[in-house]
Amino acid sequence: MPTLVAMLQGRFRPFRLIREGAGDGAFWLGRGLELVADWVFLVALIGATWMLTRDVPAVALVVLARLLPRPLILLAGGAFARRMGGNALVLLDVGRAVVAGAVALTVLGGSSGVLALGVSAAIYGVFTALAAEGRVRLLGALAPPTRLGETAALDGLVARLAYFGGPLVATALIGLGDLRVALLASAVASVGAAVLVAMRGGDVARSRAEQVPVTSVALREVIGHPRLLLVAVAGLVSGATATGLMIALLPLISSPADLGSPAVLGLLLGAVGLGTVLG
Predict the structure, then answer these.
(1) Is residue 41 a contact partner of residue 184, using CB atoms and an 8 Å limit?
(2) pLDDT tens track for 207-224
(3) Sign of the alpha-carbon dihedral angle for 164, 202, 213, 141
(4) What average pLDDT does this structure show over 242-271?
(5) Among 43, 59, 40, residue whose Cα is nearest residue 251
(6) Contact residues for 139 (Cβ-Cβ < 8 A; gap 6+)
(7) pLDDT tens readout for residues 44-64
(8) Residues 6+ apart with CB under 8 A from 113
(9) Are the CB atoms for 130 and 88 separated by under 8 Å?
(10) Which residues, 6 or more positions from 18, have their beta carbon under 8 angstroms from its beta carbon?
């Protein structure tokens, strides 16, 4: 037991950055909430595509539409971050909420099909990628330069906790309600994240971030910092593993019940997410 306690203390040590006043609590809470919303949206999106098509390649294409904007915008460097104003993250969270709500009300309402899901996934992916680009500047403003590694570690820990919690939340929402409930909950969570970022703590962080120049390509900045590179690689591997697992398991866990497949999918994915937190 002492060994387990020590291990857990080590895993959650990055949170001391907030306790010591070097981080912004409202920002990190909003960060976690938007990541949970992203996972709920992704699980519900995959479930909705599977229910419409029962075709694994179609699901894979929709997921690709959701994920592809991120590497493309990352390769574009700091061009987007330089043009993003102080309220950009708030607007992008609201944009994701609108997309999730639109999918819930139109696609699942029977007025459109898998093509609309793919377009919605791509738009959502663009909003998410732009938010990640703007956060490169914001992370540098949340803590002194000497604690950039700890800030990156905290961001990675929050992402892994969301990887664990998001699919479980999706499981509960789909099990107790349906895919539409999960998508609407994702929209509400995105709005909540926008409110947290817009709070005073988020305003301070954004104003400080605007003083941090973006002078080089974001990808080069990550590669040049070993700890940031480790977090980036870990995030890429976790995301690729999760996405591949979800697509591969769809034919195995599908059931006659329309909502059985995505609910079990979220539960299994949450178990993998727990492993990334403890491992």
Answers:
(1) no
(2) 454 444 443 444 455 555
(3) negative
(4) 56
(5) 59
(6) 148, 151, 152, 155
(7) 888 888 888 888 788 888 888
(8) 52, 107
(9) yes
(10) 24, 25, 28, 154
State how far the Cα of 189 lies from the Cα of 175, in Å rounded to an integer.
18
Name the most confidently modeled range: 47-61, 198-212, 250-264: 47-61
**What are φ and ψ of residue 225, in 5° steps?**
-115, 110
- What is this structure's pTM? 0.76
pLDDT at residue number 263: 57
Cβ-based burial of 255 (10 A; exposed 0-12, middle 13-18, buried ≥19): exposed
Q: Residue length, the chain?
A: 279
Task: Check if CATH label 2.120.10.30 holds for domain 23-278.
Answer: no
Please report where in the chains the tokens 């898998």 appear, as a residue: 114
Q: What angle do CA 279, 273, 118 make, to 5 degrees?
A: 145
